[in-house]
Amino acid sequence: MENDNKDLTLEQNVSEDGVFSSGMDMLVKSLKAVFILLSSLILILLIWFFTFSGFFTVRPDTAVIVLQFGKFKEIYTDDWHWVFPYPVSKIIEIPTTPQSLTSNTYMPANEKLITDRKNNPQGGETLVPGVDGYLITADACIIHTSWSMTYRITAPKRYYETCLTPAAPADADENLKNSKGEDIGTRGPRTLLRNVLDNAVLQVTAKWKVNDIIFNRTNEYRMEVESFVRRQIAALDIGISVETVSLGVKSPPPQTINAFNEVTSAETYAKSEEDKAKAYAAKRIALAESERNILISEAKNYKLRVVAEVRADANTFKKLLPEYLKNPESITVALFTQTVADALSTAKDKFIVNSLPGGRQEIRLKLNPEPKTDKKVVDKSRKEGGK
347 in a domain, yes or no? Predict the structure, then answer.
């Protein structure tokens, strides 16, 4: 009986071992299949990573800098290229299109006191140093200005290496914090350029008078600031060229804008009146010169005419002199007759008085001739008188 139980137990153990071996075989086969699948997938990913992920295309108006193990390798400006992917190589895109920045450093903290005069006619309170921005002119006046600058990156490698650009150069400048976590400013190319612009504005404004900046020579003032900025950027050699510098707002302090406007109106009126006076003076001078020229011309003509007449009379008398010496009476009568004829030719009315025999003289003058009337009217009046 005991032998039978031992045989049964042995058969059960053999049966269980067979089932376990079969399960292990299936598990091993499954794990092998999974391992092969994962290995194939990893291999495909590695092939894709080391081939296709290294391709890039340079977009228009963009330069691409390639760093290999953190060091500069090449710069590309067009077409497509392949490099070893990250972490071997790093691709940095730098825009080369014109970029712009603005500076309101020298504006009041509340800019609407200047830009929105309709709702802020009084100009607010006095300026607070350290809060409100302002400039001092050569004649010790205070003004506010806002500026904008357009620039272009011409040397991308130089720009990236010298301007403390962010990891992505198209991003905003990096914010700096102190040990307490408080913002203390920014660092980067735009901050650098804005500081250069502010410095140029500060130095140039200190040499100009307020009226020239705001009213009389604004464009010359802007051009001098632009020239100063160009020189400073060129001296820094940071791969940037300045295209334009524009002056936006130019204004006295908000509290004095109304007074400046009154002065401007008075100067405009004075200039208008001065221009009118100059125009009137020019007109009168031109008229006087014209009259002078006419008088001079008439005098010259009169002189020529008189001289010609005198010469003609002299020639005539020279011709008559021999005849007069031969027969004085005949020549005298002829000259007298000619003189009388010339005098009568200019007279409107002529009266000839004849001498009658016996000493009688009769003169009839028709001093007031009857006015001319219509014949029909005269006939009609006569008929009425006859009735």
Answer: no
- Kindly state the tokens that stand for 177: 């914090």
Q: Are residues 150 and 247 in the same domain?
A: yes
User: Does residue 24 sit in the same domain as residue 40?
Assistant: yes
Within-domain flag for 157: yes
| d(C-alpha 177, C-alpha 4), whole Å | 88
Q: Are strands 183-187 and 174-177 parallel, antiparallel or unpaired?
A: antiparallel
The fraction of the chain above a pLDDT of 90, given in percent, is 34
Residue 222 and residue 117 in one domain: yes
Q: Is residue 109 part of a domain?
A: yes
The pLDDT tens digits of the residues spanning 145-172 come to 999 999 999 999 999 888 878 877 878 8
Sign of CA dihedral 283, 288, 294, 300: negative
Backbone angles phi, psi at 139, to 5 degrees: -100, 30
CA angle 213, 216, 218 (to 5 degrees): 45
Q: How do 89-95 and 80-82 pair as beta strands? A: unpaired
Nearest to 97 by CA among 152, 53, 28, 47: 152
Would you tell me how many other CB atoms lie within 10 Å of the CB of residue 6? Answer: 9
Mean per-residue pLDDT for 78-82? 74
Cα-Cα-Cα-Cα dihedral sign, residues 164, 166, 171, 174: negative
Spatial separation of the C-alpha atoms in residues 201 and 212, rounded to whole Å: 15
In a domain, 364, yes or no: no
CB 344 within 8 Å of CB 350: yes
Q: Where are the beta strands (DSSP E) in 154-263?
A: 174-177, 183-187, 240-251
